[in-house]
Write a structure and sequence with these properties.
heterodimer; A: 470 residues; alpha+beta; OB fold (Dihydrolipoamide Acetyltransferase, E2P); Chloramphenicol Acetyltransferase; 7-stranded mixed sheet; 5-stranded antiparallel sheet; B: 325 residues; alpha/beta; Rossmann fold; 5-stranded mixed sheet; 14 strands; globular
């Protein structure tokens, strides 16, 4: 018997959504053959079979989100029985409905042959459709704990779920929490039973407690009634005099959730200062025109910026410095991240050792990573390990903005749009191409002078673009 | 100081104390004077209080219950005894159409501070017409209070309160309990009506009961405890007024409830208790259906073995509790 589990596709991955199974129960599957498609908080990917055999059971349905490494299916010999344990699954967060198993049809046949008792107690089927019979107390316990009754095995004489069954399910899947989360919960009077954990194996972390405090609706959304509420659009204006009416409600999840949490964390924890500097890109644009002439894959302004940033970061240690715990940690590499907008979120792919790459290499690498990010094919290692990041809003006609630092980096360099400006050069009126370098920096790591020193160096490189070709 | 006395003596003591305390209290019924009542409850009372206050009556429940109501309306506090509670059916008009209505129909200008005492229930081989538990009928009529004590202590304290009450109180004694003994304070005490008594505290299942079934439930609880099932026994003591709060708190705590009474289960007072639980916040804590255990729907048989089969027993209580868990 081989367990199929939700893969952990990166160090940061805490839970995964099963987009769809690629195999049916009863299908033969080969080791390493793709059997399902999953969505992590950052990408969609196919996941491979952990073994060869018959797919005996699917424990979750398409669309369900479960913690990484949770068992979600079984592969084995055709006559193998799946473990009793699957009946005890109580933490399925999206899989309402029947467990699909290869033995279910056999049980149904048995029932038809008059062997109803055996069929009913066979243990591998859960009736679809009708809600499970449960005592009021069991329902109350399940509701309070935010777990579904569907997968709790009943022990009542009429096959109803009793309170003890819910308690047993909760015991088997205790609300594990980090000591810090427990401390926060204790101080703030939050009941951990009501929080879903985002850590390894569903462990409750500090962030989950804080999120539960600020958004009491988040755990309520795990009850089926609330899920039903959230998906039914409200067509009737709520209350007269209440000028807002809800168009729809959606759970905060997936990449959007991660992006939101990281932004909030950065914005609320870092003493950020924003500093702008004008840069004259006239010469760079002229050089770029010449380079791109007859080139199929064009070098972008952003590629120049990445290269200039990489050089400056490599030269200036404070731009490779993070605060980790109680220490300043300076990294050796100039690993430059750049923000890529994707559907429903953003990625920051990282070009490692960008200072050592030529402009052309940077351009090719950036194009490749951006494409992989947009198609969801990017690998975890391709968006981690950055020491400094860049965000270019020029193509969206943004003049100036205040970026949020990509923790734990020390700063984020934003690039505004290029605009024409008239100036006097040697008494002559000339037109120049100007852009704004908008940098947010962590004032704990550097001061105004440190930030300006960095930008002056970037500006110098961009205004003398030949240096970037060396 | 406590002393051990019988249930019958506790009732006797309560009546005597109240008669000494209040001259308007008097006692009448069939064969209660020289014969001391069918169960010997009024032993010694004729000698103590004389014929004017301890009155034998003809075999005419309508007449002497009616007389009691009239006496109560003009300022006396009569205690009337029916020899068997089954005989209340003979004077049902007086008990339900007169006694509880007067105070309301006359706009509070009269009151009926009468106690009707009567031995109730079976277990004595007295068959169909002398073994019934008819409390549910009485509890149905607004204006009547209904009390059923299960111990000597409760019997004395509750009867004293009943005698002092300004409303008609139906005091249903349990004939098989008359000879049972219990500790009773020598000092004066009373027990308010409408306060249940948790006779045994437990965690796994509540038995809500009263009268003779309290002792039986306690025995069942001891047997169940040997199997690790910790039962709580709630003695409601008075059906009207009913201590809603204690019942609900108990069920909330144990999440399982068995209602036991000796009266016929069908249409019995257990249905009212079940309804009140189902209608309360205790509903959300129920981890099993609300279960009732009463007598079978059958006139009480004369044959002792058959009689036993009709009534709840310790074995039946044990089995019902187990079926709930």
């Amino acid at each position: 018997m081989i367990e199929v589990f939700m893969p952990k596709a990166g160090m940061d991955m805490k839970e995964g959504m099963l987009i769809r199974w690629l195999k049916n129960v009863g299908d033969h599957v080969e080791l390493n053959e793709p059997i399902m498609e999953i969505e992590t908080d950052k990408i969609n990917m196919e996941a491979e079979s952990p073994g060869t055999g018959i797919l005996l059971a699917k424990l979750i349905e398409d669309g369900a989100t479960v913690p990484v490494l949770q068992t979600i299916g079984y592969i084995g010999a055709p006559d193998e029985k799946i473990p009793q344990k699957i009946q005890d699954m109580s933490e399925i967060t999206g899989g309402h409905g029947a467990i699909q198993t290869a033995v279910a049809p056999m049980a149904a046949d048995g029932a038809e042959a008059g062997n109803t008792a055996d069929g009913a107690t066979d243990g591998n089927t859960v009736a679809a459709g009708a809600p499970p019979a449960a005592t009021p107390y069991a329902k109350k316990l399940a509701k309070d704990a935010g777990i579904a009754l569907d997968f709790i095995p009943p022990s009542g004489p009429d096959r109803e779920i009793r309170g003890r069954d819910v308690l047993a399910a909760l015991e088997k899947y205790p609300r594990e929490a980090t000591p810090l989360a427990r401390k926060y919960a204790e101080v703030d009077g939050v009941n951990l039973d009501h929080i879903s954990g985002s850590g390894f194996g569903g462990k409750i972390q500090k962030g989950d407690v804080l999120a539960a405090e600020t958004n009491t609706g988040s755990f309520a959304a795990t009850t089926s009634a609330d899920i039903a509420d959230s998906t039914v659009p409200s067509s009737v204006p709520e209350i007269q005099g209440n000028r807002r009416s809800v168009e729809n409600r959606r759970p905060i999840q997936g990449m959007r959730k991660v992006v939101g949490e990281r932004m909030f964390s950065s914005y609320s924890q870092i003493p950020t200062v924003m500093q702008s500097m004008r840069v004259n890109l006239t010469e760079l644009l002229e050089l770029r025109e010449k380079i791109n002439k007859n080139r199929e894959k064009r070098i972008s302004v952003n590629d120049f910026v990445l290269k200039a940033t990489a050089i400056a970061v490599k030269e200036l240690a404070h731009c490779r410095t993070s605060i980790i715990g109680k220490e300043y940690v300076t990294y050796k590499e100039a690993n430059i991240g750049f923000a890529v907008s994707v559907e429903n979120g953003l990625f920051v792919p990282v070009i490692h050792n960008a200072d050592q790459l030529s402009l052309l290499q940077i351009s090719e690498r950036a194009a490749e990573l951006a494409e992989r990010a947009r198609t969801g094919a990017i690998l975890p290692d391709e968006y981690s390990g950055g020491t400094f990041s860049v965000s270019n809003m020029g193509m969206f006609d943004v003049y100036e903005f205040t970026p949020i630092i990509n923790q734990p980096e020390c700063a984020l360099l934003g690039i505004g749009g290029i605009h024409d400006e008239l100036a006097l050069k040697d008494g002559e009126l000339v037109s120049r191409k100007i852009a704004l370098l908008c940098m947010s920096y962590d004032h704990r790591i550097m001061d105004g002078v440190g930030a300006a020193t960095f930008k002056i160096r970037v500006k110098e490189l961009l205004q003398n673009p030949m240096e970037l070709l060396l | 100081m406590m002393k051990e006395i019988t249930y019958a003596q506790a009732i006797n003591d309560a009546m005597c104390e109240e008669m000494i305390r209040d001259e308007t209290v008097f006692f009448m019924g069939e064969d209660i004077a020289e014969y001391c009542g069918a169960f010997g409850v009024s032993r010694g009372m004729l000698e103590k209080f004389g014929k004017d206050r301890i009155m034998n009556t003809p075999i005419s429940e309508q007449a002497f219950v009616g007389a009691g109501i009239g006496a109560a309306m003009v300022g006396m506090r009569p205690i009337v005894e029916l020899m068997f509670s089954d005989f209340m059916c003979v004077c049902f008009d007086e008990l339900v159409n007169e006694a509880p209505k007067m105070r309301f129909m006359f706009g509070g200008k009269v009151k009926v501070p009468m106690v009707m005492r009567t031995p109730s229930g079976g277990g004595t081989g007295a068959a169909a017409q002398h073994s019934q538990s008819l409390e549910a009928c009485l509890a149905h009529f607004p204006g009547l209070k209904v009390v059923i004590p299960s111990t000597p202590y409760d019997a004395k304290g509750l009867l004293k309160t009943a005698i002092r009450d300004d409303n008609p109180v139906m005091f249903l004694e349990q004939k098989t309990l008359y000879r049972t003994k219990g500790m009773v304070p020598e000092e004066e005490y009373t027990i308010p009506l409408g306060v249940a008594d948790v006779k045994r505290s437990g965690t796994d299942c509540s038995i809500i009961t009263y009268g003779r079934m309290v002792q039986m439930s306690l025995e069942a609880a001891e047997l169940l405890m040997e199997e690790g099932i910790n039962v709580e026994v709630v003695d409601i003591r008075s059906l009207v007024p009913l201590d809603h709060k204690t019942m609900i708190e108990s069920v909330r705590k144990t999440r399982h409830v068995l209602i036991v009474h000796e009266a016929v289960q069908f249409g019995g007072f257990g249905g009212e208790i079940a309804g009140q639980i189902a209608d309360s916040e205790a509903f959300y804590y129920l981890d099993a259906p609300i279960r009732r255990l009463g007598a079978l729907s059958c006139p009480i048989p004369f044959n002792p073995n058959l009689e036993k089969a009709v009534f709840p027993t310790v074995e039946k209580i044990v089995a019902q509790v187990k079926s709930l868990l």
